[in-house]
Write a structure and sequence with these properties.
The protein is α/β, with parallel strands linked by helices and 260 residues long. The chain is built from eight helices and 14 strands. The protein is globular, with a radius of gyration of 18 Å.
Length: 260
């Protein structure tokens, strides 16, 4: 597949874990921080090239994120898995569906089955509510796709014992909620310009990389640059953690924009 390299514009829509920062009813110092970089919505990114834009995940803060970034159009959504912080904004796709009709959604079979149960009114073909968003499911299981002249590769990873999907867009890789990945799938992440990976906290966690695991994984993959996301308040203050990271690794924050 010989393709011209595309310039990708990446916007971090959210960089927080499932409860965000600040977390409800928490008096943790990070939750009380006045630094805007310590305030994190649920994790998602907007990937744009040429005249198209796609999000990876569509979580509970999707509406707020779209308004904050003044997103005027969307061409599709790539889902990593079915947990609420990654799918909870599905209904808010309706504004974009009014523009383009059916919204392509790329996801594995398990995630689709979950969406069909949790958002039955969206997928129903009988007595369908006229205001519901219309979606076009496209199953991804491992084979690379050509999306608007860009090669997109789904990558199988494990979120604890749950099989979920990471994605490579050109030379940009995005992994969230990862705890482990096979050697075979790691090969799909070689020679990246930018790798984004989750780093939940300092202590180990049964289903997520902690900081050490994320940094070890980055050192193994050797991207030119890496950004950490899906961060909880237990990782610490943004400014303090940033000081201890390797020179090519950065803490992402909400609203951060990079070019790949």
């Amino acid at each position: 597949m010989n393709l011209t390299k595309k310039q990708l514009n990446i916007t971090f829509l959210g960089t927080g874990t499932s409860q965000g920062i600040p977390m409800i009813a928490s008096n943790d110092p990070v939750c009380l921080s006045k630094n805007l970089k310590d305030k994190r919505l649920r994790s998602s990114v907007l990937v744009s090239w040429d005249n198209v834009s796609y999000t990876i995940d569509c979580g509970l803060d999707f509406r707020q994120q779209m308004l904050r970034e003044h997103v005027q159009s969307l061409n599709g959504v790539f889902f990593t898995h079915e947990h609420a912080d990654h799918i909870g904004g599905l209904d808010d796709l309706r504004a974009f569906c009014y523009q383009i009709g059916e919204m392509p959604i790329y996801l594995n079979e398990r995630t689709l089955r979950s969406l069909e149960k949790r958002f039955e009114y969206i997928f129903s073909t009988k007595n369908r509510y006229p205001g519901a968003p219309s979606v076009l499911p496209i199953i991804v299981e491992g084979t690379s796709l050509l999306i608007d002249e860009l090669k997109v590769t789904p990558i199988k990873v494990l979120h604890g014992s749950l099989p979920i999907t990471a994605y490579r867009f050109g030379d940009f890789g995005y992994l969230t909620d990862v705890k482990s990945i096979s050697d075979e799938e790691k090969l799909k992440l070689k020679d990246l310009d930018v790798l984004v990976v989750n780093a939940l906290r300092i202590e180990e966690h049964p289903t997520h990389f902690n900081l050490k695991e994320a940094l070890d994984f980055i050192a193994e993959m050797k991207p030119k640059k890496a950004y950490l996301t899906h961060i909880s308040h237990k990782l610490g203050f943004h400014d303090e953690v940033s000081k201890i990271l390797p020179k090519n690794v950065f803490l992402a924050y909400d609203g951060l924009k990079i070019t790949v």
